[in-house]
Prior knowledge:
Elements: E1 2-3, E2 7-8, E3 14-21, H1 30-38, E4 43-44, E5 55-61, E6 66-72, E7 75-79, E8 90-105, E9 110-114, E10 118-121, E11 127-143, H2 144-151, E12 162-163, H3 170-183, H4 189-211, H5 225-242, H6 250-256, H7 261-269, H8 275-291, H9 299-305, H10 311-322, H11 326-339
Antiparallel strand pairs: 1-3, 2-3, 3-5, 4-7, 5-6, 6-11, 7-11, 8-9, 8-10, 8-11, 10-12
Helix pairs in contact: 2-4, 3-4, 4-5, 5-7, 6-7
Amino acid sequence: MQENKPTPHDGGDVCTLEHLSTDQFEPCVRFEAWRARAHQLVELEQPQPGRALEADLVMLRNGACRFGTMRSTDYATRADARQRPGCADMVVMTSILEGVVHIDDARNSRRRVGAGSLALYDLSQMARYEWIGPAREAYLILSRTEAMRAMGANVRGCGLPVPLDQCAIAPALHAQLALLARSALTLDATERAGLLDGAHALALLALHQAAHPVAANDAADDTLGSLSAGRYAAALHFMEQHAERPELDATAIARGIACSRSRLYAAFADRGETVMGALREVRLQRARAVLERGGWVHLGALAWHCGFADQSHFSRAFKSRFGATPSDWQRHARAVKLRSPTP
């Protein structure tokens, strides 16, 4: 069993990592041990006869939220606040990465949810969740109070689960959760903590967007500072996905993440940055990454691929940022690659 000591990062919060696997427990105690350690908010049902319980769970915790990613074979859980009273204070945002889950609620209705789904679930409401494996999920456990503030509504009264797939920032949130799921065990403590903070901010902004029509998004009360952090993270993700578009500007970015330009500008100003300065940095870092591979690349094509309208503008910006022209950087990278022994 791997459990890291709490590690503070630049923001001052503490982020802990824990890795659990059913293989760590003897078969005779596996179910009870997994039930106690991995399912503290829901009841784990006994596996079907002849089916072994096989699962792997990675968890991150800080003072604001908890993240988890689980791989498993078939299994089922039940949400029941009478047996797990702690769940009444929590809601869970889940991204299904692989597999299918059947949800049976107290009204005897059944829903089938597949890979790619992103939604907010209320574990205080009785329901049964049957996972058909191989299954993989990534989730954030948020305080109910914080989720209510982000949505500006009573979570119990808003018809959970709340689908989030159509939110403008859903792709950014999906990507952030998937990255944490893939990399939590390999990133260093500071990187893990930063990604968890970003996922938390994006989650709150997604809830805010889900509860308010896009047209009225900027008229809604923006009392959470984390909404600004979510806009910042969503904007960076949008830039990385669309950096090759020379016409990309603040108006297009704001439209892409469903906020006004003033809110977008404020999100970057809060961090001492500008929108176009951040976009330029994303483009230049992309170009440098390509050059550092050590292969030959046409610099005009590279400039266009990174969103620069012409090669001369690209070369000036690159030299200003890194102290060398793209051609010099390319020659150096190729020389280093040629000197390196071939594996």
